Amino acid sequence: MKTRKKVVVWLLSLAAALAVGAWLVVRLPSFGGVPEGARLERMRQSKQFHGTRFENTPPYESNLSFVREMKSYFGDEVREPQFEVPVVRLPAEQLGRPVAPGLRAWWLGHASVLLEIDGVRILTDPVLSRRVSPFQFAGPARQHPAPLAIGELKNVDAVVISHDHFDHLDMDTVQALGRGGTHFYVGLGIGAHLERWEVPAAQIHEMDWWDSAQVRGVTIHCTPARHYSGRKSMNNSTLWASWLLKGPNHSAYFSGDTGYADHFKAVRERLGAPQLSMIKIGAYGDTWLDIHMSPESAIQAHRDLDAGTLLPVHWGTFNLAYHAWDEPMVRAVKAAKAQGVQIVTPRPGEKFEVGAPFVNQAWYSKAAR
């Protein structure tokens, strides 16, 4: 009997220690802040906020199956590149130069794109850390170096953030940009994370869908997406979004993470067709499609937008799904060709400029090398 009591006491003590440990872990700065006060009140006024959380319309209904997920997890796909990815190093002095007229884009890996649009420099979902995780000692690591180091970030006018997952909102990158005076345009609630990371309040602009703001002649439109949010759990505590950037002469659209839905057509109808679309093509699965669309759906989304050129993003940098490493781009290129969509396949760090010649290379395919 005494031995049994000792075991029970030991188990209870262990459970208490684990609970305290978990409580301390989620209080780390990398998990961000909690919306409260006026910020929370504004969130509650959003048409997307229902009860205690944001919701898709219609709501996302998960059809995840533990058995199916485990079967997919232990699949035999080659999920990492079997060769050195040909990264084009972005010269540090690039960000020291004045922004010339026109529209240029450098894919920095995953969902991070450096844009120069009508004299304004903008970054999408900048993640330059080695890992997409609350800890830099564990978690999914980059499969190729970033074309630009965090310490080289400067002279970035604005950042747009699609949502607060770790592969889209990186504390170290945000803090570096914040110290440099960059302004952040984010969905409702995400400002709580930035404030905890000591980004000045004057540099944080929280927006609901269809809100807009001005940055030296470029209008930043917060537009719908179909996804979810949360850094500590999938609690939908902040608003996810896509973004349309519209200057006097050029325009670009960034999808963020999303499932395929009618919001792409709505963006085109309300704000016009962009010259450049940056749409996610990777990290999908049979049970994820409502919130993580397939490459073929990405091509359809581009067509719904009636966009000019497609720059695929959200693939090839982190191992976050069960498909082969190069599958998203292979499928996207095939679907684009079948649908007559103009697609570009730049290497990480390679410049694409609207109106300038660009030669696609199948650098992502080992067979083509």
From TrEMBL:
Residues 121-315 form the Metallo-beta-lactamase domain. Pfam families: Lactamase_B_2. InterPro entries: Metallo-B-lactamas, NAPE-PLD, RibonucZ/Hydroxyglut_hydro. This is MBL fold metallo-hydrolase.
